[in-house]
Records
---
Amino acid sequence: MQVSVRLFAAYRETTGTSELELQLDEGATVRDAWHVLVNRFPGLATFRHRVVGAVNAQYVSLDTPLRDGDEVAFIPPVAGGEHGEDYFAVVTDPIDEAALRARVSDPGAGAVLTFVGTTRNQTGERRVEYLEYEAYEPLALRQMERIADEIRTRWPEVKGIAIVHRIGRLEIGEASIAIAVSSPHRATAFAACRYAIDRAKESLPIWKKEVWEGGQEWLEEGPAHLQ
C-alpha cells in the first residue's frame, strides 16, 4: 500500500523534503512507517526528539495500522477556524489583539481576558536575532478546538474562546500567540486563559526555531517518545 508522509521543522530539514510517498506492507503501522523513513534518511536516527504520529490530521498511537491512501505526519516535539462562538486560526500576518477580543465579546461577559506571547531576544546566554515558526495547520486547528472543548468542560460558564498562532519569520517583540477568553467572572477567565496557553504549548504541532549570529536551532519540548 502507499501512504503520503508529511515532515516538519527539523525532520523536514534533515530529509530535505516536506512531503513524500512510502510503499508499505499491508498491515503496517505508524511505527513501521517511521522506521522505513529512518532507513531511507539515516540522519533522522540521530535525533533525540520524541516522535509523535498523526494520521489524516488526528493524533494517533504509533501502533495504529495504516490504510492505503492515508496521510501520515510525524510531529517533532513542540516548543498553535472558526467554531460556533469560538475562533481558531494559524496566520502569517501580525496578530490583531483588538480583533481577537471582539471575537469573544458577549453581553453576558463581565470579563474578557487576553494573553499575548511575544518573541524575546535572549535564551540563556544566547542573543536571539529572530524566530521562525512552522505548523501542521489542519492538526493545529483541531487541537485548538480540542483545547476549547476541554475548557468548556471545566468551565461551562465561559462565553467565548479565541486562539491564534502566527507562523513564518517573527522579529523580536512580535506576538507569536494570542488567546482571548470571555466569561461572566474574572476568576474563570484567568483560569481558562492559563489552561489554554499551557495546553497550547504542550500539544499544538507548531515548532519554533531560534536564529542567532552564526547558528540556529529548533527548540525541543512536547509529547511522548517514539518507543
---
Amino acid sequence: MARANRLIIGLGNPGPDYDGTRHNAGFMVVDRIAEQVGIALRDEAAAAMVGEGRWRGRPIALAKPLTFMNRSGQAFQALRRRYGLKPQDILVIYDDIALPLGAIRLRENGGAGGHNGIENIISHLNSTDFPRLRVGVGDSFPRGGQVRYVLEPFLEEERPDVEKAIEKAAEAALCFVRDGMLAAMNRYNRRS
C-alpha cells in the first residue's frame, strides 16, 4: 500500500482538449500544489495520475483522475483503497458555478450542489462525508448554457482572478494537510 497521511484530489477532465477550461479548476490547483511542494504527478495508478512526497515532514499524495468528471467516484474509491485513508483525510478540489469567479470555499461535507463529479463520488462512497474545496468559476452563461460554459477556457480578462483563486486554493489545501480541515476553513472561508 502506498503511503500518505493526506490525499488531495483535483477534479477535471483528462486530455489536452480540456486544458485551461473552467471544469478543470481542480486540476489547475493540484498542478500549483505539485509545483510548490516539488511533487511530480507522473505515475499512473488507481485511475489517476499520482505523485507522492513529503511536505513539512508529512507524507502526502496528489492526484488528478484519468476518468472523466462524471466518473470521478471510480478514481476516488480506487485512490482511497490505494492509500488506505478515511474519506476525511482526502480533500477534493473542484470548480463551482455557484461561487463568484475567484472565490474559494471549504466544506467538511455536504451535497453535490448539482456538480456531476461530486455527485458521482457521493454515489460511490455512499456518503456526503468528505472534505471539499470549491473554486468559483462564476455563472456568466445563458439559461441552459451551463455545460458549454464549464467546458470553455477562462477568458483573458478573467485570468488575474483565476490565478489568485488557484494560489489561494493551493494555500488552503496545504493548510488542510498541515493543520486540518477546521483550521483551513477558519482561515480561508473568511470573506475578503
---
Amino acid sequence: MNYYEEIIKEIEENIDKGDYSEAERLIRNELSVSYVPRDVESRLNELLDKVKRDSYQQKSLSDEQIEEYLCKDEIHQLLAVDELNRKNLRNYIDTVQSYLSGDGYLNSKVLLIDSLIRQEVNCDFIYNGETFNPCKVILPEKSPGFLSALELIRERFMKDPSMMAMAEQLLYKEVLMALPDTLSKDEGFMAADKIIAYILKAFESAN
C-alpha cells in the first residue's frame, strides 16, 4: 500500500467513526500540497464532499431544538423550517399546526406550507385565520396564475435572458407568498405586468 492509499484509508476510517474534523484536516493537508495525482485529488474532493454532507446531517436539529427555534427570531425560524422540510411532515402535525396558526416569520411559514403541499399532507391547518388542506392546493408552479404570468414574462423578455431570469424569480416569490391561496389567471396577468414594469425600471435606472 502506497502513501496515498494509506492516507485515504485513514480518512475513510475517521469518517466511518464520525471524526469529521480529523478527516477534514487530513484531506485539506493533502489538497494543500503543490502536487497531488489527479485521481487522488478527485478522490480527496469526493471525501471532502462526504465529510461536509455527513457532518451537516450529524448537526441536524433535534425535535426539541426545532420547537425552540420556531419561537425565536427570523433566522432561527428559517433554520427550524428548513429542518422540518427535510422530514416527513406527517410526523410533525401538531408542531406545524401550532406554528402556522401563531405569530411567526411570514417567509418561513410559506416555505413550510410549500413543503406541506409537495408532501401532499392530508390535514386541515389554520393560517391567517383561514383553514386549508395542503393536498387540495395546487403546486405554485402549476397554478393558473403562475403559468399565465410566466407566458407573458417570457414573451416580453425573450431576447434578454438576464431580465427573464430575474422576472421568473420574482414571479415564483409572488406565487409562493400567496400560499395557500392560488393565483387566478387574471391575478397572474396583473402580477406579470407589475414585475415587468419593475424590471424595466430597475434596468433603466442601472443604465
